Input
Amino acid sequence: MKIPFAVEERPDTGLNNGRFGIWLFLASELMLFGGLFSAYILLRTGSSGWPKGADFLNIPLATVNTVVLISSSVTIILAWIALQMNNVKRFRILYSLTILLGFIFLIIKYFEYSAKFHHHYYPSTNTFLAIYFTMTGLHVLHILGGLLVNIYHLFPGFKLYKEDPEKYKGRIELSGIYWHFVDLVWIFLFPILYLL
Amino acid sequence: MDTKSLSKKNRTYLIVFASLMFLTFITVWVSGLDLTKTSKILAIDASVCAIIIALSVASVKGFLVGGYFMHLFDEKRWVYLLILLSVFFFIALLYLPLLESHSRLEHYYVP
Output
């Protein structure tokens, strides 16, 4: 059975199912992170003192991670452009690079977390570290989720390109929009946790 | 989309990428500056000055990522409505803690 509006746009909204779905999902994600940003403000303004991020966190490592994540955002959108041009080889290289950059982000995060635990800094140590681990931990889970989707599209999901190229292109665009959202969250997490 | 407009988009994305890198550098550089003089001129606390600068730069970066990478500049009305609704509630969530200031425990952060 063919699902209507999987590729073509609905006449009433001008959107297909996937595009409307991803934006509904991202709206809920904005609320999820919004609640945590709100908790951060509450904790910070409600405390008599607040540490500088550099007191506990490694700013050079986090800066490298910011560069890595922004780079992955540009590789995923260039991959989508390559796919629009039906340049499959270029698409696969750029999409693989996005996945690789995602893993580099996770590896750097692993070293960052390991250093914290080595110094006996845990979420229970103080409220700064509690909100740091909660927000960055949730962000890491989002990176992991994005990586799983991207790996699926690159390997088993790629057969869809041969069957229905337009549907596959749509999926790549939507996975990219999600990946950019994860990048967007990090763009705000980086200054508020590490630099301020 | 034809090849010409796709190539144009390719160039635009690379310019946005360079801008994001530059703004990341600015964010880190400003965080290391002594903002005492600037805060005196603006008559605000140095930490507030740092927060305003850092969040302004982050907002510009967010605008670039949302507008160009997430295609928000070319989206349909329904997407804008959905985003407006969620941004409204997001801002409400951010402001809720600031509404109450009388019942703070003053001991959240334990060094």
About this structure: Chain B has a mean pLDDT of 85.
